[in-house]
Amino acid sequence: MSNDLIKQQTLLLFAGIVITLSACATSASDKKQDHTKVATPGIPVDAMILKPENLSENMEISGTLAAVQEVNIMSELSRKVSSVYAAEGKQVGAGTLLFKLDDADLQAQLDQYLQQEKLAVINERRLADLIANQAAIQQDYDQALTSLRVLQAQIRQIRVNIEKTRITAPFAGKIGLVNIHPGALVTPGQTLTTLEDKSRIKVDFYIPEKYAANFKTGDPIHFKVESNNKDYDGTIIAQEAKLNNDTRTLLLRAITGNTDGELLPGQSARVSVSLHNVKDAVMVPNQALMPSAAGYSVFVIKNGKADIKTVKTGERNANTIHITEGLTTGDTVVTSNMLRLSPGAAVQFTSIK
Description:
Elements: H1 3-38, E1 43-49, E2 52-74, E3 79-84, E4 91-92, E5 97-101, H2 104-132, H3 138-164, E6 166-168, E7 173-175, E8 185-186, E9 191-208, E10 220-225, E11 232-239, E12 249-257, E13 268-285, E14 290-292, E15 295-302, E16 305-316, E17 320-325, E18 332-334, E19 347-352
Parallel strand pairs: 1-19
Antiparallel strand pairs: 1-18, 2-9, 2-13, 3-5, 3-8, 4-7, 5-6, 7-9, 9-12, 10-11, 10-13, 11-12, 13-17, 14-15, 15-16, 16-17
């Protein structure tokens, strides 16, 4: 056999081996691609790792502002006004004279009683000396002493009425509108003006009976008024002894400072109160909840697979809801694509927070 023939046969044999190996490699690659196509990828989901949060449930209700002290200034006597010292809108101190009523007849009556008292004192002393010398009977002395004491009581009464003609401020505050003028006749119960102490402001508001046990003296409140955008703080100082029979609500009263005078008695207020605070609360987005026969359920991820858990819920706000049972801090909760999930399904995280 010639050398050329041997070379040709060797080349043909080598080419056949190369073709065979190439075919095998192509077959293996095709099998690998087929295997990749058969493998099922995880369902894409968004998820959230639960972290402890502080939960504060608030309630907003309407309230009314009032001065810490306010009173209608009235007369106790039916008399003519002789002088008006009260100036509308003026700040006055306690004891400041506001109105003076005519007391001329009372002063005259007081002078008469004082003169009679002098004579009664002399008569009582004379009879006392006579009794000591056994020159008078005891009955005469007793009558003289009684007359003196009755007269002294009348003097005290007249002085009380004279003092009532001086109408003064019972506490420091701001005078309102004056409704009377000199020469006018006033009667008991007639309002002459008003006096308000606005250095502090009371905030009165009603809460539903459901929350009546949630509040106690010293609890804070927050409120706003229509006249500005400021936030004000106050402290609960008292509550009514019983519920309102018509509305089944409880009246609470809070107090706040008002040194700058921005708050006015009678203003309405939007009061915000905290119903309760929960530390380390488990909160999940509202969209993570799925209604179920037992209430609500959520999907959690464990080892890359979905698992469903029944939960109990608490208070809800605009974006999240409080989970009271069923979940713990550190759980990974699915927040999207829940309808495609089933227990045990593999998942693929699109995003995780």
